Amino acid sequence: MSLKLVLVVFLLVKVVTSEDTSFIYKGFKSTQLYLDGISELTQNGLLRLTNDTKQQKAHAFHPNPVVFKTTSNGSVSSFSTTLVFAIRPEYPTLSGHGIVFVVAPTKGLPNSLPSQYLGLFTDTNNGNITNHVFGVELDTIQSKEFDDINDNHVGIDINSLKSDNSTTAGYYTSGGEFKNLTLFSGYPMQVWVEYDGVKKQIDVTLGPTNMDKPEVPLLSLTKDLSPILNDTMYVGFTSATGSVHTSHYVLGWSFKINGQAQQLVISELPKLPKFGEKKESKFLTIGLPLISLSSVFVIILSVAYFIKRKKKFAELLEDWEHEYGPHRFKYKDLYFATKGFKEKELLGTGGFGRVYKGVMPVSKIEVAVKRVSHESRQGMREFVAEIVSIGRLRHRNLVPLLGYCRRKGELLLVYDYMSNGSLDKYLYNQPRVTLNWNQRFVIIKGVASGLFYLHEEWEQVVVHRDIKASNVLLDAELNGRLGDFGLARLYDHGTDPQTTHVVGTLGYLAPEHARTGKATTSSDVFAFGAFLLEVVCGRRPIEHIGESESVILVDWVYDCWKTGEILMAKDPNLGLDYKSEEVELVLKLGLLCSHSEPSVRPSMRQVVQYLEMDVPLPDLSLLGLSSAGLTFGHHEDFGNFPMSYPFSMEKPFSHTTQSSTSVTESLLSGGR
Length: 672
Ligand SMILES: *[C@@H]1O[C@H](CO)[C@@H](O)[C@H](O)[C@H]1NC(C)=O
Ligand SMILES: *[C@@H]1O[C@H](CO)[C@@H](O)[C@H](O)[C@H]1NC(C)=O
Ligand SMILES: *[C@@H]1O[C@H](CO)[C@@H](O)[C@H](O)[C@H]1NC(C)=O
Ligand SMILES: *[C@@H]1O[C@H](CO)[C@@H](O)[C@H](O)[C@H]1NC(C)=O
Ligand SMILES: *[C@@H]1O[C@H](CO)[C@@H](O)[C@H](O)[C@H]1NC(C)=O
Ligand SMILES: *[C@@H]1O[C@H](CO)[C@@H](O)[C@H](O)[C@H]1NC(C)=O
Hints:
By secondary structure, this protein is an alpha+beta fold. The chain has 11 helices and 27 strands.
């Protein structure tokens, strides 16, 4: 009883003093935390900074100011803080932005933006010395503009989102070994931030909650904070969401000036919501207590059931895959999501396998699951590493890859579900809905920007290898999103270079790609050119008319251009509601990208500039496009090149309607 009284008195005293030099939060239930943005306290006392998908920011601050300069000479005192946090994204592979522990002149940072700005700064005040902000970011997205090193890092930020020092999230064991930690694994982790006012040194340490604080800090910076911090400051957290549902939680927090922050005891902190795992089947517990003939029978049956079930849901999981833990889906979940890969859930059959619609059991997220049959395990490790890395790509014009699962002879890829299906369905074969010019132009620009991102904006160059209308999916707002990137790779790995299987689709395949079997960014540009013509003309790159005749789209558009009537080539379904200069631009750009000489094709950066009309398109007649269709199909000696079209080959045909030699024609005659 008396202890309680003392506590109450202590609390009262705490409220009376308006400046704190130390505090501890063992959960945040009925605390006076300052909250703004979308931050809130949950019923059991967790601080949930974010949970929403909209581009929102969140702030939470200790309500009272903290005096950082306790001596008269104006130097910042030592301080120490520790917190337990967890980042729970909706998808196992994508996360919203991060959490920042922050020391700021005001409660809340009114001059701040969500997403990559983390609720900390804006594009105008970022980096300004008048900010007086010190922060430690736990960042789960790589923002190139702030020189982020990767999408899972800890950084020390002084007045700027460009960290003064940063490193991959993890910790050093007492043996000195570095262990990675995935910030958005969803599991709680602890972070310690310490400033030594004498040595002027900041140390940041991260660790899992089931062990003591690692001895060696993860990250350090020697920096005198005296010019950065004001005499009194506020301490707290900022966080932000982008386009993925993510909950950023803080479970507990302690802070102290001139001393060690009080230890947090995990068992005293509020519990995170349970992960959405289903409980185990109760089958084995049934019947066991009753040892009778019938129960033995039941047991035998259930064991048989289990063995069958186990086989049914068996997966391949090798040691090297453990690091991809968060990207792995359970086969069982995918099985139930797609109602057992029911025919009714089939969305389509692509070059690489069948695609099913699914709804994930717990989260109810709509997904598309692609089953790729693959017997060879050769190259699988590299390939999975690649898809996992591709899964980290984020761009509004790419279909997000959420993860994968592996079984014997089969790979399953899980994508975000795109409600409007693939673009080709809107272009030919008597589409039920035709797209107007504006919609098509938006899709074209979107795909260009997605491909530009793959080629130039991401940390490594990603060659798509199979651009075509059927690989462009339309989301709910009819934005074009590229899917299936990198898949063609699977069939390249480990094959004999002498018999390279060229994967790609005829009509989109650049001549040098067919010849050498090597896909490059310029062979992607070639395919993009075919795609442009496809979208404007509403026709396939190669169309069969009758038994033995075909129209090669690029040749036909070329002929229209040559006679000065390039607009003749456009889809008649467009009607009259179009901007002729845009249609003309896209058709000409399609021709330019289809040039047989890779060096003449523009880069995707240039393509984007042309489409935005920032830069005028070069004059085609100056590029040697004058001599009939030949320009697009240099006579090449295709006599001996090794190739085959194992997956996407269109029906072979013997001659075209054109008398001129075209690329596709020479390819075919060479290929046979
Ligand atoms: C976020 O939290 C609020 C309040 O608990 C809730 O109403 C809302 O549905 C949540 N949003 C998501 C996306 O979970
Ligand atoms: C400021 O005063 C404190 C305590 O008196 C001392 O430890 C510290 O070294 C002084 N700093 C400077 C820059 O003189
Ligand atoms: C922080 O200190 C700077 C420089 O001493 C001053 O200009 C600024 O107004 C102070 N900020 C606040 C919120 O007191
Ligand atoms: C920094 O911010 C101050 C105050 O908002 C402003 O006057 C100044 O121009 C900014 N400096 C830079 C380099 O942007
Ligand atoms: C830790 O993560 C980094 C960055 O993702 C990676 O380069 C490194 O190989 C990983 N290390 C281990 C031991 O997994
Ligand atoms: C960044 O932190 C690492 C790890 O503590 C340290 O080795 C390195 O010297 C620091 N870099 C700077 C610029 O302080």
